[in-house]
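Before we proceed, please read the two lines closing this message. Let me know whether the structure tokens fit the sequence:

…
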Amino acid sequence: MTSRLQSAFLVYVFAALGVFLVVAPWSPLWETSTVGYLPTPLSPWLRSGFLRGLVSGLGALNFVAAWNEARSLLWPSEGDGSPR
């Protein structure tokens, strides 16, 4: 069983990472990064919308994890042994 402080920290980390992963691929940060402009066979793929959507999808999964952790923090289940 994790403590309430650990659960709150996990909610914060998952939510912050989720915001970053959803926003970063569509921001100028992604466009101006040097990784996409290296003369490698991967550079067109790194600039593709597919990869941007994939990274944003990972951010959405982080939101789901944050919500699940927040739900267990705010509304504990009956069998977890926490005081009412």
